[in-house]
Amino acid sequence: MDILGEISRHLQAGSEEKVADVTRRAVKTNIPPKEILDKGLISGMNIIGEKYKAHEIFLPDVLLAAKAMYAGMDVLRPLFVKEDMPSAGKVVIGTVQGDLHDIGKNLVGIMLKGAGFEVIDLGNDVAPESFVETARKENASVIGMSALLTTTMPAMKRVIDYVKNEGLDSRIKTIIGGAPVSEEYAREIGADAYGYDSTHAVECVKKLIAEMHR
Amino acid sequence: MREIIEVAAHDAQPTEQDVFTGQGIPADRRPSATTTQLFVETKKVFSACAQCVGVIADITIPAFETLYAGEGMNEAATPLDAVFRKADNLAVFAVTVGGAVSRKIDHFFKTHEYALAGMLDAFASSGAERVADRVQDNYRKRLIHENIATAKTMVLRYSPGYCGWHVSGQKKLFAYLKPEEIGITLLDSFLMKPLKSISGVFVAGPKDIHIFEDNFPVCSECQTHSCRSRIQGILQKQE
Questions:
Q1: Of these four, A3, B124, B152, B157, which has the most CB atoms within 10 Å of its CB?
Q2: Which residues of A touch B112 (CB under 8 A)?
Q3: Domain B12-binding, which positions (chain A) (predicted)?
Q4: What residue in A sits closest to B105 (Cα-Cα)?
């Protein structure tokens, strides 16, 4: 029986209890936790991401799947030694200074975790130095910023300038998003990427990190 | 005249379609049974924690002209600029569904109830519009009751941050209206707190004054052109 496939299917169906049960079963059969994570949970979320992108499913389905993923992660988490916690990369996210909207940022955070990234969510109304100093201290590769007002968008440039002025731009990349933000604005302020929705943001982050490792 | 109007949570309930549209589900697609169940659950949460209230104050055209000029950051040509001077009556307003809803959304995110958080967020956004609708209806009825308007009077609303009226316009609006009395504050970024709040102006007048083509320069940046359906819908409802 394809137990990892079963985990993925239950995750896609948003069945958190079944994901937790089958994950426990997989652990008992001595499948390595990383394999369960990659081929069960993350695999399931990848399929969810593809279906969402193809408009086959919608936001509530994605969010239910994310909760199911967390149920599986809760089973696996104690099995990982902290230093060996697998991660596709570390991303610092937040809503910029002066802005309190966080639903978009939260969705990106959920999708990034679903893709295996370690996410440090600074919340909302985040000062530029907080983004950068957190990324520096945590050795994060990407800073993701969200803004929902034209009046708060300029804070994104302050973060990007801070990164550059500190000489960190080769090791910390930036991605921006939010309703008033655009690809053009991202270019204008020197952001490394622009995510037009949460799925696209994850793809962009994967690309940024892949390019950094080349 | 300035008035505070409380709106019962059940009068601020949006439709399933409004909420599902807010979650990216097109009108022609049937959501899953789980999604529908989520909506039902969210409706209960909203009913339990929403505190819907609005404040409205009459304003003359000259006074609104000053208010609308704001911080000087509006687009040069806007639909509202073309409309408000033709109005018979104007009133500025602010409404909210209350801070408890936003706190509930945060709580759901923190406890991994993401689907509920997302649904409640969409529900509350639509709910705030429903509160604005109720206050708008109340305004129109008052004008008719006071023989200031007739049954042919149409009322549409405009909000800072849309259609070329810069979001900084809220500064003068807040100074005039003082929505702090109902718990709405304005941050330095011109963001309202609680988040699920709406402010703006009601423009009351005959049908003809509300009709405009959405071909202003600012319209090219608009992703929804919701003015088209708003004008059409309200005019059809009131005919």
A1: B124
A2: 66-67, 70
A3: 88-214
A4: A103
Summarised one tens digit per residue, pLDDT across range B39-68 is: 999 999 999 999 999 999 999 999 999 999
Q: Which residues of A touch B121 (CB under 8 A)?
A: 103
Is the pLDDT confidence value at A83 over 70? no
Categorise residue B96: left if φ over 0, alpha if ψ from -120 to 50, beta otherwise.
beta
What does each C-alpha distance from B24 to A177, B29, B196 come to in angstroms? Answer: 17, 10, 19
CB contact under 8 A, A64 and B119: no
d(CA B15, CA B39): 10
Residue from the list B34, B114, B189 with its beta carbon closest to the beta carbon of A98:
B189
Q: Please name which of B112, B68, B90, B106 lies closest in space to residue B196, comparing C-alpha atoms.
A: B106
User: What CATH number does the domain containing B78 carry?
Assistant: 3.40.109.40
Whether residue A99 and residue B189 make contact (CB cut-off 8 A), yes or no, is yes
Question: Which residues from B are below 8 Å from A64, CB to CB?
Answer: 34, 38, 114-115
CATH of A90-213, one of 2.60.120.10, 1.10.150.20, 3.40.50.280, 1.10.10.10: 3.40.50.280
- Contact between A148 and A180 (Cβ < 8 Å): yes
Question: DSSP 3-state assignment of A180?
Answer: coil
The rounded distance, in Å, linking the Cα atoms of A161 and A141 is 16
Q: Which of A74, A119, A151 is best to mutate for the B interface (most B CBs within 10 A)?
A: A151
Question: Which domain covers residue B205, as residue numbers?
Answer: 2-236
Residue B211 pLDDT greater than 90, yes or no? no
pLDDT value, residue B235: 66
Q: Report, as an integer, the average pLDDT of B197-204.
A: 97
Nearest-CB residue to A100 (from B35, B114, B193): B193
Number of domains in chain B: 1
For residue B91, what is the enclosing H or E element?
Answer: strand B89-96
A200 in B contact zone (CB under 8 Å): no
Pick the CATH number of A3-79 from 3.40.50.1000, 1.25.40.10, 2.40.37.10, 1.10.1240.10: 1.10.1240.10
